[in-house]
Design a protein that fits this description.
Length: 326
């Protein structure tokens, strides 16, 4: 085990997979000479050369298309999006090509493609560089969607993503890159998709949280513990596939549920999770499922206003108290 920052864990897994499989290569804007805006590909061009670490033009639609074609020929591209906000520019390639080709070829083709990068708040990057866009991709059959909240989960899930024969959308968070924890040194360490993780056990209420909100949920749980409210925090880790078995088991134990994510509340993944809790575990609920997400406005440039838009620790505390005292 080694203590690693989230960004370093990402970088190390990519390097290990490139060493293990010559078909794995990286491409994206500034991934080579600069090593990525957040350092997630630092040193890879020096180690593997310009043929396997490719600095692309500013054309997301173009290089996603290149990645799709390469993956259909047996290569395993890891496409680096500087900001996942920019996936909007490549929606046709991602949603109409990558997501559908295996089905349209009757399963005879494989499409081992990883599209990874960061999103979210934390740097005052404003409306077009601070969004959380994962919900768009959970709506389209054919894609896998991962959203790790810790360095260990990032390492284990990324290795699974690179080795999978399906296209994977891999959402990191800019505010998590500097966080660190113990990560296994085993080059075979992986975490299967569709397996949620209970980050904190509790008996009074369940908080289902994703990405940056996992840490805020854990902070809220410590505050609530002082009031005698024992909160269980569940991190789905992957949104497609989604581990509803673990989520429902927790809710059935506690009888109360709060779902929280950074993305906009309206039509976010929290709506799907809350709906499925209600469908699967209604008879176990002692209160309606609460749902927290960003307010319905563009992400502001101001850090103060940015934090006012997305759920805070205090918001999570208030939501848990509300469902607990009903």
């Amino acid at each position: 085990m080694s203590r690693k920052k989230y960004a370093v864990a990402i970088r190390d897994v990519i390097a290990e997979e490139m060493k293990a499989d010559p078909n794995v290569f990286v491409m994206g804007e500034d991934v080579g000479l600069q090593g990525g805006v957040f350092g997630c590909t630092r040193g890879l061009m020096e180690e593997f050369g310009e043929q396997r670490v490719i600095d692309t033009p500013i054309s997301e639609l173009g290089y996603v298309g290149v990645g799709i074609g390469a993956s259909l020929t047996g290569l395993r591209p890891v496409i680096d999006f500087m900001y996942m906000d920019f996936t909007y520019v490549a929606m046709d390639q991602i949603l109409n090509q990558a997501a559908k080709l295996r089905y349209m070829y009757g399963g005879k083709a494989t499409l081992p493609l990883v599209i990874r990068g960061q999103q979210g708040i934390g740097r005052g990057n404003a409306g077009t560089h601070s969004q959380s866009v994962e919900a768009f991709f959970t709506h389209i059959p054919g894609l896998l969607v991962a959203q790790p909240s810790t360095a260990r989960d990032a390492a284990g899930l990324l290795r699974t993503a690179i080795r999978d024969n399906n296209p994977v959308m891999f959402f990191e968070h800019k505010a998590l890159y500097a966080t660190s924890e113990e990560v296994p040194d085993d080059p075979e360490f992986s975490i299967p998709f569709g397996l949620a993780d209970i980050k904190r056990e509790g008996k009074d209420a369940t908080v289902v949280a994703t990405s940056l909100m996992v840490g805020r949920a854990l902070e809220a749980a410590e505050i609530l513990a002082k009031d005698g409210i024992d909160v269980e925090v569940v991190d789905p880790r992957t949104l497609l596939p989604l581990d509803m078995d673990t989520i429902n088991a927790s809710v059935r134990k506690t009888g109360r549920a709060v779902v929280v994510h950074e993305a906009h509340r309206t039509n976010g993944v929290g709506a799907e999770i809350a709906s499925r809790i209600s469908e699967d575990s209604f008879r176990y609920l002692d209160a309606p499922v609460a749902r927290l997400g960003a307010k319905a406005c563009t992400l502001p440039f101001s850090l103060v206003l940015e934090n006012a838009v997305v759920p805070s620790v205090e918001d999570i505390v208030a939501a848990v108290r509300d469902v607990s005292y009903r």
